[in-house]
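If you are new to this repository, start here. Below is one unmodified record pulled from the training split, so you can see the exact layout before writing a loader.
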Amino acid sequence: MEKENATPNPRRDFLKKSSLITAVALTPTAAIKAADNQLDERIAQAIENVPCSIEINGTKHTMKIDPRITLLDLLRERLHLTGTKKGCDYGQCGACTVHVDGQRVNSCLTLAVMNDGKKVTTIEGLANGSELHPMQAAFIKHDGFQCGYCTPGQIMSAVACIREGHADNEGEIREFMSGNICRCGAYPNIVAAIQEVKKGGKNI
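And here is the target side for that same chain:
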């Protein structure tokens, strides 16, 4: 009986690996997505909602929420406060900026449950009824926006910039507003709006 040839066959090994890679590549995308969705559903079923109470724009909201949901998604998807925008979802653009206990935060990076018992202010909570907040009025006066998508986050950061004492000159304003990106390039107008509110001396 002849012994099986144990000599490596690079060509045969290459063909085997190529066939395996091709099979994986040809797996229907729908099948992969279905498997992912089933996994997500099983994970969701294993995680219980937790109680959470947050005061948002002066109104207290008590609810049970998924502990994985971000503050941004809670605001937009659950409470329908869509003024706060989702841009990069990585905390790099500032479009989702809100105030938590007076401090500006990127709501896309903050789990909603971490804000239990805290006070959150969104762009919807700045105006006093039909009267615009001074910063909102200044942005309109100085054309501090073009497409407007980043504007809510810009305004929230601009208010915080003054409250934090970082609006004494143009360079300081640009430094402490650098976390808010405007792809339209309205930075000079944004700076002008902040400077006007700062000089106005109003309590914001």
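Two things worth knowing about this chain: Residues 29-46 form the longest helix (18 residues). The chain has a mean pLDDT of 90.
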